[in-house]
Amino acid sequence: MIIRSAEFIISAVGPKQYPEGNQPEIALAGRSNVGKSSLINKMINRKNLARTSSTPGKTQTLNFYHINESFYFVDLPGYGFAKVPKPVQAQWSKFIEQYLSKRDCLKAVLQLVDLRHPPSKEDIHMFEWLGHFGIPRIVVTTKADKISRGHWPKHQKVIRQALQLPKNVPMVLFSSETGQGKDELWGLLAPYLVG
Ligand code: GTP
Ligand code: MG
Q: Per the database record, which ranges form the EngB-type G domain (predicted)?
């Protein structure tokens, strides 16, 4: 994918703020700190367009990034960050759920899981929930650079089994450090980005 433009559009907390125009949207879901914002930056060759942080809970709104003036990446707030007060977490889940269940131009969700660890209950819940709503899913296992290549298959197997990954759901090994998986992921996204 040749990136001609990438622009931050809005931090939205409700449907009224979502961009108009009906262009395809690809959302990123996953635990806080799993690497959602880093993945967006890597995919579009930008250092810090999507703000990243070693402090979990950085992304607290739905952040829309307009790519090539033709589609959007939507960075969702990370779930599972215990230090965020319960009422705030509940508020997040509400607008994440509202977005995922009602947004017509949402074409697919990248579900990010840290390759190093088995999926959490929330990962599994999110994965099943997306399936229930019939939203196309792509599992992205992040931070592959933190594990030696020889151990990748073992870790992927744990994740595949925990999620009970259906055959038609692709899983991509990814690293925002090395760019591993970037081209493969663009290939998987391509069908969703037309019209
Ligand atoms: P929230 O916004 O809190 O939900 O987090 P996030 O999922 O957007 O994570 P973010 O992209 O901010 O990354 C969190 C931390 O992990 C940062 O310190 C990143 O530099 C680091 N990180 C992300 N992806 C990778 C990766 O592929 N490899 C390595 N080594 N570090 C990564
Ligand atoms: Mg983030």
A: 22-195
Nearest CA to ligand 1 atom 24: 35
Domain ranges of the chain: 6-192
Q: What is the DSSP string of 1-43?
A: -----EEEEEEESSGGGSPSS---EEEEEEBTTSSHHHHHHHH
Nearest-angstrom CA–CA distance, 3 and 25: 16
- Digit-coded pLDDT (tens) for 45-68: 998 898 877 776 666 789 999 999
The interface predicted TM-score of the complex, written ipTM, equals 0.99
Nearest ligand, CA of residue 31?
1
Whether 181 is in the pocket of ligand 1, judged by its Cβ within 6 Å, is no
pTM over 0.90: yes
| CA of 60 relative to ligand 2 center, distance in Å | 8
**CA 51 to ligand 1 centroid distance, Å:** 10
The continuous run of DSSP H or E covering 188 comes out as helix 182-189
Spell out which residues have Cβ within 5 A of ligand 2, the ion.
36-37, 58-59
- The single residue listed with the structure tokens 């197997």 is 157
How far apart are alpha carbons 97 and 100 in whole angstroms?
5
